[in-house]
Specification:
Blueprint lengths: L8 E3 L2 E4 L2 E2 H8 L3 E5 H14 L6 E5 L6 H9 L3 E4 L2 H9 L7 E3 L6 H8 L5 E4 L2 H13 L4 E6 L25 H9 L7 E7 L10 H20 L6 E3 L16 H12 L10 E4 L3 H4 L3 E12 L4 E5 L8 H5 L5 E3 L2 H4 L3 E7 L8 E9 L7 E4 L20 E6 L2 E6 L4 H5 L9
Parallel strand pairs: 4-19, 5-6, 5-12, 6-7, 7-8, 8-9, 9-10, 10-11, 11-12, 14-16
Antiparallel strand pairs: 1-2, 2-3, 4-13, 13-14, 13-18, 15-18, 16-17, 19-20
Helix pairs in contact: 2-9, 5-6, 7-8, 8-9
This protein binds pyridoxal-5'-phosphate (PLP).
Length: 430
Amino acid sequence: MSKPQDYFRYSQKELSTEGVPLEKLAREFGTPLYVYSREAFLRPLRTLQQGLEEIRPLVCFAVKANSNLSVLRLLQEEGAGMDLVSLGEMKRAILAGTPVGRIVFSGVGKSDAEIEEALKHSIHSFNVESTAELARLSELAQKKGKVAPVALRFNPDVNPKTHPYISTGLKRNKFGLNRKEIVAIARSANEYPGVSLRGLSIHIGSQILSLSPFDEAFRKLTDLAIELDELLSEPLEFLDLGGGLGITYGREKPPTIENYCKTVLKHFGRKSRLYGRYRILLEPGRTLAGNAGVLLTRVLYRKKRDKKDFLVVDAAMNDLLRPSLYGSHHGIVALQERIEKAKRIRTDVVGPVCESSDCFASDRLLSSKLDSGDYVAILSAGAYGMSMSSSYNTRNRPAEVLVSKGVYRLIRKRETFEDQVRLEIGKGLS
Ligand SMILES: *Cc1c(COP(=O)(O)O)cnc(C)c1O
């Protein structure tokens, strides 16, 4: 289980990571600023790799969780592959040095241009989500004289009991193919000469907080794989178990990575009936990145009201969308321990954007001492933070810093106004 305080703790009265006080970074690079700990990315990856050593899975990081090139590089150097959902993500993965054989291309709506570009590289697989996509992929591959390696994404109709926006494995969701569709494809596999059916994939949702949905989905997946192997001329080579294991943002108690591994091993490990039959792939995103980063922001104003105060900070929903999009919880702490320890009062933490949903916390008990010029960290912001950011309100997207063992590097510069308007050319119609 990854917790916000594992790598971001007070040391000599200042919130720090890997020996670097965060306020130093906030002053040097300005705010809002994303700060990541290298070790915090690697620890959960290594725990997964070690917990599953007996089946040596290919762990593909879900690039959409955090797409910074330096982050991708550090994960691929540790043996990770990449799970992508767009051509842009594929280019990032390759630029970061990922061997193409460790790349899987997921997503419900791959365009011709994306498919054609991906066909140029020998990626591990296209995770196909509809019969129409399979036909199109086959056609495009054939034109190029290629055979595309394919995993069919199975929607196992399992309830992951998570936020509806991040639930993906239910019948009513847009994702994947159902059992009937997959069996029909397997029966007519020769109608798709441009593809080779190599595997099945699932991904039932995100921020999943119990093992039972995984257990149920893995069971349905293996049943289907066995059924398909009887229909296909060549048996399947791999099963891709997706991502989705939750992390602690506040009070959640997600399963530990070790216990998640035990569930995987129950189905695919040495003692399972399927041991050695299929290569196993995983696609964790949040599990690796969520608690590897924080968003630093400066308090602009304290605004006093009868029942509570507002802290207006210099970060906003464009920098970190999750609270506005999902109503999700992020811990918020002062960078100075002396401020954090002061008396607490009911507080809303809000950004400057002109939307009432631009709110990082409401009715939260926070230090009454926080005032203009003080810094706070919005915790657990390493996944779906910077990667979901926008320049709404013509705000420049934040800079990003990576810390490792007392050393830090700027890994993305702060966006500038010029960056933003560069593509808006001419004078319109006037
Ligand atoms: C988003 C996504 C993931 C990663 O999900 P997490 O909850 O971040 O682990 C994995 N696989 C696919 C296909 C995805 O779309």
